[in-house]
Design a protein that fits this description.
Number of strands: 0
Radius of gyration: 13 Å
Order of helices and strands: HHHHH
Oligomer: single chain
Helix content: 55-70%
Number of helices: 5
Largest sheet: none
Shape: globular
Length: 85
């Protein structure tokens, strides 16, 4: 996972995604890994895959550290409606 995060910072999203997939196969259950998978797809322009991962993240961690960012992105894309203020 650390390698994946380093690659995200270096904007090497395809290789970072491979790192996160490998990490999740060995140690599943870390919702941050799901978020980073979504982020990689998002940055690579793969919206459908990003939506799938972002929704998985929100199911696993509705109040997680990235939840607000993910909700905002899904609202922006029309996959969620904004909560009333």
């Amino acid at each position: 996972q650390v390698c994946g995060i380093a690659r995200v910072r270096g904007k090497k999203y395809d290789s970072a995604l491979q790192d996160f997939k490998a990490y999740e196969q060995k140690l599943s259950g870390n919702e941050d890994t799901v978020y980073f998978r979504g982020l990689c797809h998002d940055k690579m322009g793969k919206k459908a895959d990003a939506v799938t991962e972002y929704k998985r993240y929100l199911e696993a961690a509705p109040e997680g550290s990235h939840a607000e960012e993910v909700r905002k992105r899904l609202v922006e894309w029309g996959y969620l409606t904004a909560a009333p203020a």
